[in-house]
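B., you asked whether I could sanity-check this one before it goes into the benchmark set. Here's the sequence:
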Amino acid sequence: MNVPVKNIHGLKYAAEELIAFGGEEKIFLFYGDMGAGKTTLIKSLCESLGTHEPVTSPTFSIVNEYDGGKTKIYHFDFYRLKNQTEAFDLGYEEYFYSGNYCFIEWPEKIAGLLPDHYIRVDVKVLDENERLLTFEKF
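And here's what the prediction gave me:
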């Protein structure tokens, strides 16, 4: 499924479409270049799921936890991982298999640890304000 986002105001619609597309799936992997807008999209997803607290990048903490009202939301940024052992040390399995939402940036850093079922989200920069989001179920 492709969803064009022409400006930041279109993110709310894109987030709602992505949640609906995911259905019962709670693991979402985000792919895209640095600065493509992955964290901004995840912020919109968290807001759509009921988060009222500030959503920030977990670049240094690796994982941030948010209250989504009916569910917890875990937001991962694996960009700074040196190896997959660091994900083991973090206890990634507890998060991934908790039944809660997991939004994972830079999943290619832990490719061997990813669950069998997930939603892949590709964020492609078209120009300064426009993005193309592609959703796929695996």
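One thing to flag: The mean pLDDT is 94. Otherwise nothing jumped out at me.
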